[in-house]
Specification:
By secondary structure, this protein is α/β, with parallel strands linked by helices. The protein has 14 helices and eleven strands. It has helices at residues 5-10, 27-35, 49-62, 78-87, 101-109, 121-129, 151-161, 175-183, 193-196, 205-212, 236-246, 251-258, 261-266, 291-307; strands at 16-18, 40-43, 67-72, 92-96, 113-118, 135-138, 144-145, 166-169, 188-191, 219-222, 230-233. The strands form two sheets. Strands 1-9-8-6-5-4-3-2 form an eight-stranded parallel beta sheet. β10 (219-222) and β11 (230-233) form a beta hairpin.
Length: 313
Amino acid sequence: MMKTEITELLEIEYPIIQGGMAWVAEYHLAAAVSEAGGLGIIGAGGAPASWVRDQIRELKKLTNKPFGVNLMLMNPEADQIAQVLVEEGVNVVTTGAGSPEKYMKAWKEANMKVIPVVASVALAKRMERCGADAVVAEGTEAGGHIGEITTMALVPQIVDAVNIPVIAAGGIADGRGLAAAFMLGAKAAQIGTAFVATDECIVHQNYKDRILKSKDIDSRVTGRSTGHPVRTIRNNMTKEYTRLENEGASFEELEKLTLGALRKAVVDGDVDNGSVMAGQIAGLVKEQLSCKALIEKLMSEMKSTISGVSVNE
């Protein structure tokens, strides 16, 4: 057990939050992370409200520990999902792709902890003003949809700019990264890619193996021309997308290429033509563990890292 402002706020044992990855972070994974002492997150992604409700109810059959739901605010059913979270008694909501301000009153009245994911100081300050309990400062090293600022540069600037706790995300997959996050002023870390490769994650084994075999140079960012950059593992799909981008393809052409691509990788195991979302840190993920073993490993490595640092006066 380790106490920080975040563990006390969320009533969890360890300052580790699992990323709310669409198609990946469903109730099996979220429940396993929560049971292991972290905060498991169900990723709503673009799913309908009925699916989110079912996921919450299934998770509650597996654990009575705190958990959260990530609401992608661009979801067409965001309003309905926001209400489902209240009705189902969700402990924590993280948000992405926008501002959750219009839901804040209802969520706070339901005693929910609201933690937006942010990629800039300006958005972090805005979230604090509208009542957020904490923010996730996510650097560009992360997998999936990303901003432009690195974790090393972003986290300390947001820590200095707000008075609420900051959770670091992007490029964290081992205890050294966790220790670095605390040195930058964060009170917890959000981890995605490392949890994708765990036993309890339901993604196709091909997806896990692609992460486990990744090298440091294997991630690519596509979609900069559309204003929606996404980091994935390079494959045939990223090569074709990059070619079309360089040729000035329209937004519609690019969207057609990626339509259903994440599901293709996650469910069907097509890691050559699907979207294998993963962070730059994938090259450090070399073994498939249970969620409990991963969290224990992270905490042990972090303690060893900190104890191994000495400063000569």
